[in-house]
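Retry 2 of 3 after timeout on previous attempt. Resubmitting structure tokens to design endpoint.
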């Protein structure tokens, strides 16, 4: 009976170690995929700017919603336009009337366009160069920006 209990204890300890390692590897894989997707989206945004003269504009200046990059980088079949990025259909979700691109952690990628003279929702004006920020919270807190995956 004692030998059976010892064997069960050893098996449960080994199973716990394997499950912990599997969870770590899954998070590491999701983080790596997010980094690759942000790099690919950044390249697609640069190609879009080269063809159109500017980055896609947020339809709501107070939001970091990424629906404008989905509609501009991959126009629907009814719309004639160049496709800059192929979004995976299982990573797209509808939010109201817009389609949003999700990161591997299940959260939306965040995109903010900053243009010369852009005035945000609180009345602050950016007089710098046209640019954008693209990031993922990597499944973490929106306040813990040190864990975010960013293009800057």
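Retry 2 succeeded. Sequence:
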């Amino acid at each position: 009976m004692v030998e059976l209990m010892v064997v069960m204890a050893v098996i449960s300890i080994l199973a716990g170690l394997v499950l912990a390692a599997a969870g770590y590897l899954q998070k590491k894989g999701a983080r790596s995929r997010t980094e690759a997707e942000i790099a690919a989206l950044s390249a697609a945004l640069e190609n879009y700017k080269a063809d159109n003269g500017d980055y896609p504009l947020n339809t709501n200046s107070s939001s970091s919603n990424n629906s404008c990059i989905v509609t501009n980088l991959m126009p629907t079949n009814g719309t004639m336009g160049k496709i800059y990025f192929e979004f995976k259909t299982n990573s797209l979700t509808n939010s109201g009337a817009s389609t949003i691109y999700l990161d591997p952690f299940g959260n939306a990628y965040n995109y903010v366009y900053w243009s010369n003279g852009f005035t945000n929702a609180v009345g602050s004006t950016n007089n710098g160069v046209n640019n954008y920020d693209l990031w993922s919270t990597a499944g973490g807190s929106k306040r813990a920006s040190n864990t975010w995956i960013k293009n800057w």
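Attempt log closed. Residues 31-150 form one domain.
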